[in-house]
Amino acid sequence: MSSTSFRDSTVVIIETSRTAIHAGIGLHDLLHLPTIDIPARVGLRRHTSQNAEDGTFPCPSTSKAPNTAKVTEYLVGSHLDEALAAGQDITVYWPFAEGEVSDFIQAEALWKYVLFHQLGLRRVQMESPVMLSVPAGLSRDSYERISQVFFERFNVAGFAILDRPMAQFYAVISGLQLSGIVVDIDLDHTDITPIADGFPVHTARTAVPVGLNDCLAYLAHLFRANTSVMSALSPASAPLSADVLQDTLLALARHAWASGLIKVLAEGEAARDLEDEGVTDIAAIVVAGKERAVIESGMKRRQNAKAQPAEQARAKEMEALDLVATEFRGTELTLGKERHRFCEPLFDPALLEGVPGVTHKEPRDQRRPLQNAVGEAVAKTDVDQRNYIWQGLFVTGPITDNIKGLGAALSSRVSPYILSAPDVLNNEVQPRGVKTLRVPDYFAEYRDKGDGLAGFLGTSIVAKLSFNDTGGKNYVSKAEYASRGPRTVLGQSPSLL
What we know:
Elements: E1 12-16, E2 20-25, E3 36-39, E4 42-45, E5 75-76, H1 78-85, E6 90-93, H2 104-118, E7 129-134, H3 140-153, E8 158-163, H4 164-170, E9 180-185, E10 190-196, E11 199-200, E12 206-208, H5 212-223, H6 227-233, H7 242-258, H8 269-276, H9 279-287, H10 291-303, H11 309-319, E13 324-328, E14 331-335, H12 344-347, H13 370-379, H14 386-389, E15 393-396, H15 406-413, H16 454-467, E16 476-477, H17 478-484
Helix pairs in contact: 4-16, 5-7, 10-11
């Protein structure tokens, strides 16, 4: 038990996901956003990795690097970005992509870059404790080795480990709520973690090999059917090559997502609307030169609240076409309702068959609808826990930074797992409804940032509680590590108590 106390300004927060690392230093009355945001990838020059596979990895890969590679030989962050931009022969590795630490040397290179290059700390004068959140389900040997890296390689003053789903859950719960389910949609995978009475149910955890990159590829595929977009990006007079066109459409899909032009639709809504207002009709409107009138009518309606009833009706009719103009690489494009089908692959992965740019990930039999995977995960928990778990459905991940309402869309799709006509008096066990959670508005700096940073926020909350605990039961001090070794972290971390 540690009696060491730390100043809030010295506490370091590091959130490690499959594909990204968020970090910051200092705790304040208003919990701040992360100041560091880097991809969780490292690079190794080809002459250093003679045994590595040929080709670089544009998406997360866990191919093993040579055992002879040292921490200092890996390129991380801006150093890696500059080397790739310069066309250097680099092999890229993602050590956390499979939800575990596939290479501790690569992981050490990433954390070292964050602590000493990005945050500007010094090893010989390290006064900062570190709260690290990692993917759930790591082995105890992994916890011990991570602890060893931070104490012996980084010389931290204190250390604690937190399961990332618990950090995400802590960011959104209130009162005595201790049960729920966290759905974390990453770039290529979606992790589902039920939580019962404050503990993750590891036997019920599951993952679906579908993520944000699949949604981007699917929307890029849909844009091929929009003749106005295709004629603007690849005109008949100067058509783009197949590879360049695919890259351009992917960039447009990312632009539409990052610009907040996409909303997630309720079950069945997208298909019904697109049947009524198909892409062909939108293209015809654009060809007729009426798209600007359609778009500006919505603006006029909002600016002139005292407009005549006839004008209001006309504006409403035009706005119903749901066109949006956006500037992309110096060209103004008009996007239609097809953009709202962005999230469909999450709920129906079969749509990805034959879509260009989709990376097929193993195991293929795990690629199932998200609502089915969530329902199956809850079904693996104890029957008397399920009703409470359904009262805390939280959807997070990078995709939620720019798309709101994913939780509500998912909750409407899990209705087969909920009683349609519950008998409250005679049945207290079966779930009767679903409650969705989101990051509360009283976290001022996170208010307009979506729910994707919930992991960092929750890690900050736990760090503030743990490192201010005079009992010191929830972290390991340097003195305790020196006397008892790496195994100390197993008894004094928020994840393992």
